Amino acid sequence: MKKAIIYLFFFFFIIINTSFTILSESILIRIYAHLKVTSVQIIQSKGNYYVMADATTILKTKNTDVLKFNLINDSVNLMLNDSFKGRYKYIKIIGSNDAEFKIKLLNPDRKIRTYQNNISLSVVEEGLKLINEVELNNYIAGVTEAEAGSRTTLEFYKVQSILARTFALAHINKHVNEGFSLCDQVHCQAYFGKPKDSNICSAINLTQNLVVVDENLNLIIAAFHSNCGGQTANSEDVWGAKTSYLRSISDSFSLKMPNSKWERRMLTDDWLSYLKLKHNIPIEKENIRQAALKFNQESRKIYLECNNTKIPLKNVRQDLQLKSTFFNILPLGKDSILFIGRGYGHGLGLCQEGAIKMGKLGYNYTQILNFYYQNTQLIDLHKLNFFKDE
Ligand SMILES: [Zn+2]
Ligand SMILES: [Zn+2]
Questions:
Q1: CA 185–ligand 1 middle distance (angstroms)
Q2: Ligand nearest to the CA of 357
Q3: What is the pTM of this model?
């Protein structure tokens, strides 16, 4: 395991061999990874850029220059301010350290976003593959806004940014066979470019390089969810694998928050036929039918037991698209039942709304992370390099 960390660490330092700029700790993120992009505009908005096409520098751009890229057959067609520049297999737009660009997808049509640092374009599966080569901290900032939402507290941004960094390093090889590290979708971590809230940059500056590790100094699985409903879950009850730090804890901070509670009304017949068809429960029998209309969890259970059949609650949640597995069931009138639920999400690791509340009560990010991830510590990611000598 220690060797793996060293490898991840070195993979991380991608030095661009150019006198123009050196990004010391950058990461390759495929952006718009879920879309088949065939036409896109890129407009330089800050700093200086030059364009390399098939390994040759072909032009320098100035602010407001519009570069347009269209997929034509298996090549990228490049226009600068409406004049044709050439057709290439691979184009890289390389900026100064402070450089930013705006990107406007034309096909499919999407709103303008702002990204920092470099971008490359190539052709993959009848679409353009867009890869943002971005400083780690800029990437972490973008993820923090996408995952935490904007307009939350500084302390919560610190927490979320440490988790984003931990996740990124732990999964740096997730897409390595496709030529990048992470995609910009929830498959990896949501990332939509430069954040709008300047508090996020402060949070990142105040938690430089920190990652969460377990007692063996391995990067943790940085699981988080919206609200645990008062009690978090054990990893083995949700994902099957036991970890020392994803342990069920009682969390009163998450009560009385927006996602603490939920309700769902359902027709009794729909519930019973679900039990019959999906789990083979003999609901024709009156006593079993009656028993199936009530369910109670004082603390989190793993199964809904019905006629000696154990139905995993995570399956019920998924099948019925419920906000959580932490629910009770009550009969409601003659023909309905009511799910009365607590929390939102899988319940593992950090509870976002509980963490926000802790921050407002004056707990700092270290205390918040130690509360939700038991037996862990914060460490400077560069210290993981120590293992090289062992
Ligand atoms: Zn991914
Ligand atoms: Zn909670």
A1: 6
A2: 2
A3: 0.87
The CA distance from 353 to 224, in Å, is: 10
- What's the CA gap between 231 and 333, in Å, rounded? 30
Distance 181 CA to ligand 1 centre (A): 8
Whether residue 273 lies inside any domain: the answer is: yes
Q: How many CB atoms lie within 10 A of CB 50?
A: 17
Nearest bound ligand to the CA of residue 248? 2
Report the C-alpha dihedral over residues 272, 273, 279, 283, rounded to 10 degrees: 50
Ligand 2 centroid – CA 98 distance (Å)? 39
pLDDT in tens, the chain (390 residues): 344 443 444 444 433 333 345 567 899 999 999 999 999 999 999 999 999 999 888 899 988 899 999 999 999 999 999 999 999 999 999 999 899 999 999 999 999 999 999 999 999 988 999 999 999 999 999 999 999 987 789 999 999 999 999 999 999 999 999 999 999 999 999 999 999 998 999 999 999 999 999 999 999 999 999 999 999 999 999 987 999 999 999 999 999 999 999 999 999 999 999 999 999 999 999 999 999 999 999 999 999 998 889 999 999 999 999 999 999 999 998 899 999 999 999 999 999 999 999 999 999 999 999 999 999 999 999 887 644 444
| Residues around ligand 1, an ion, CB closer than 5 A | 183, 187-188
In a domain, 252, yes or no: no
Q: 141 in a domain, yes or no? A: no
How far is the centre of ligand 2, averaged over its atoms, from the C-alpha of 355 (Å)?
8
Residue 302 lies in a domain: yes
Please state the domain count of the chain.
Answer: 1
User: Residue 115 Cα, ligand 2 centroid: separation in angstroms?
Assistant: 33
* d(C-alpha 50, C-alpha 130), whole Å: 17
- The domain containing residue 298 runs over which residues? 261-342
